[in-house]
Amino acid sequence: MNWQLAVSTLGMPGVTVSEAVRVAAEHGCHGVEIRTHPDEEVHIGLTAREVGRLRARIADAGLAVPCLAGYARLCAPGPHGRAIDELRSLIELAHQFGAPAIRAFPGGEGDPASDDARAHERIGAVLEELRDSGVRLLVETHDSHPTGSATMRLVEPFAAPGLVAVLWDALHPWRCGEPPARTRAVLAGYLGYFQLKDVAGTRDLTPLRPGQGDIPLAECGQLLQSWSGWVSLEWERAWYPSVEPVGAPLEAAAAWFGRWRPCPPNAPS
């Protein structure tokens, strides 16, 4: 089993990729999860030359881009075309960056049958692009589908976890009453990525350094021992601008990572 550590640029709003790379490298990260947003340096519509320059900067630091965190909403009401075009653009951008995955939100409005049907239509429309590009679509446990059980309704019908899987955000299943053991069991082979975060409780979602809040992160660490993949700190400073800069939280995340990262067979613990 093998984990790799990343940090999301959501914790560094407005910061250049070069600066984000510096912060990640200084804290022992293996990669940078890039928030893809019109307000940030990385966004849909970059030229191939711009992508090449940014990709080279990341590679020169010895880092990878494990995921482009986009904002496509798979279940949202409205025409399919816009959502599908957004997914296709994000897949192409990830391919240019050499990123193996993109993140999308469910984004439904509370009618499970309609929400799920829209997601199935939109995911099905981009399966060929995912397959051809080698990019994986990760649906985050979030908003209308906050639990592992709910998110699995969106991905399991495709029976292709190598193409369509789940990003387990440590916060949302837990705050909605799904224990980590249940989330892990439900996701099984569809777990594609783990986002590390902590908060004071289910009513106060202000970010705290990992280990300072109530999310059972030690239990999560134990449950992930048989899994391989990327663990990324999502420090939501873009949404909570009053919280501290990402440095100290990333130190705490690196400590959690070092504590729970599975040891290779015959390696000293």
What is shown here, in short?
The protein is 39% helix and 18% strand.
Question: What would you say this structure looks like, in words?
Answer:
It is a single chain. By secondary structure, the protein is an alpha/beta fold. Helices cover 39% and strands 18% of the residues. It contains nine helices and ten strands. An eight-stranded parallel barrel has the order 1-2-3-4-5-6-7-10, surrounded by six helices. Strand 8 (198-199) and strand 9 (207-208) form a beta hairpin. It is globular. The relative contact order is 0.15.
As a percent range, the share of strand residues is: 15-25%
Radius of gyration: 17 Å
Fraction of helical residues: 25-40%
Poorly predicted regions: none
What distance separates the N and C termini? 14 Å
What structural class results from the helix and strand content? alpha/beta
Instruction: Write down the overall geometry.
Output: globular
Instruction: Describe the largest sheet.
Output: 8 strands, parallel, barrel
> What's the number of extended β-strand segments?
10
Q: State the order of secondary-structure elements, H for helix, E for strand.
A: EHEHEHEHEHEHHEEEHEH
The total of helices stands at 9
Mean pLDDT across all residues, rounded?
Answer: 97
Strand order of the largest sheet: 1-2-3-4-5-6-7-10
Defining key terms:
eight-stranded parallel barrel; alpha/beta
Topology record:
Elements: E1 3-8, H1 17-26, E2 31-35, H2 48-60, E3 68-73, H3 80-97, E4 101-105, H4 112-133, E5 136-140, H5 148-155, E6 164-169, H6 171-175, H7 180-187, E7 191-196, E8 198-199, E9 207-208, H8 217-223, E10 229-233, H9 247-260
Parallel strand pairs: 1-2, 1-10, 2-3, 3-4, 4-5, 5-6, 6-7, 7-10
Antiparallel strand pairs: 8-9
Helix pairs in contact: 3-4, 8-9
